[in-house]
Give the backbone structure.
Amino acid sequence: MEKPRNLVIIIVAFFAIYVIWGSTYLLNKIAVTELPPFMLASMRFITAGSLIFIIAKIVGFKIAITRKQLFNTAVAGFLFLSFGNGVIVWALKYVDSGFAALEVSAQPLVVLLMMRFFEGKKIKLMSIVGTILGVIGIFLLVSQKEIVTQEGTILGVVMIFACMVSWSYGSLFVAKADLPSNFFVNTGYQMITGGIMLLIASLLFGEVWIFPTEWSQPVQLSMVLLIIFGGIVAFTAFNYLLKTVSPDKVATSTYVNPIIALALGWYFLNEQITTQSIIAATILLIGVYFINTKKKLVIYSRFRK
C-alpha cells in the first residue's frame, strides 16, 4: 500500500510545481507593479516560513535541526529564494511574466550541463540534440526586436538567466545535502533564511516599504496566493521531489510553467505573444523534451535486457 500512496503524493507534488508555480509569474508581476521587488519577496517568504513553523508546532513536527542542517538550509534559501526568486521578481519590472517563464524553461539544459561538469554524468546523443535546440530557442526568444529595444529588458534577461543557474545548482545541492528530514520543516527554514537575506538586500538597496493596508486589492490577493500556494504548498512539494526523484525530472516543471504563465499573462495582463516567441518556445520545449526522454529510453532498454 505504501507505493501507491507515495505515487499519489508524487503526482500531487508535480501538479503543484507544474501548475501553481506557473501562475506565480502572473502573481509576482501584479505585485511588483506596486511593491519593491526585494520587499515583496522578503515579506512573502518570511510570512510563509513563519506560518510553516506555526503549523509544524500544532501538528507536532520536530523543528530542531543541527548546525550543519541550518547552514545547508541557508545555502538552499539563498540559491532558490534570495537570489533565484528575488532577482526574478526584480526582473519582472522589465520583462513580461510569460517571457520570464519561457526563459526559465531552459533550466533542464542547465541542470544537465551541471550534472555533466560537477557529477561526471555522461551526456547522451539525444541530450546533445536537445541542448542545441535549447540554445537555438533561447536565441530566438531574446533576439526579438520587441525585446531588444525596450529599456532595461536586456539586463532583465541576463539576470533571469543568472537566477536559472542559481536554481539549477541549488537543485543539485539539495539532492545531496544534509537537510531536515521533514520536508515541511526543511521548507520553513529555507524560507526564513532566504527571506531574511532578502530583507537585508531590501534595506541595502534603500527600498521604501509599503504597509499592506496601502496595497491595492489585486496586490493583496496576489500576495496571499503567493504565500499559501506558491510558497508553502508548491515549495514544500519541490523539496519533497528533490529528495524523491532526480533533479532533472524535477526541472521538467518548465514544460508546463511557460504555458500557464503565457496564458495567464495574455488573459489578465494583455501581454503580447509574438509568433517568434511561439516558435522559440516550441523549439526550446522540444529540446527539453529530448533531454528528459532519453533517460526513459535508457531505463526501458535496461528492463528489456
Q: What stands out?
A: Residues 296-305 have pLDDT under 50 and may be disordered. The first helix runs from residue 2 to 32.
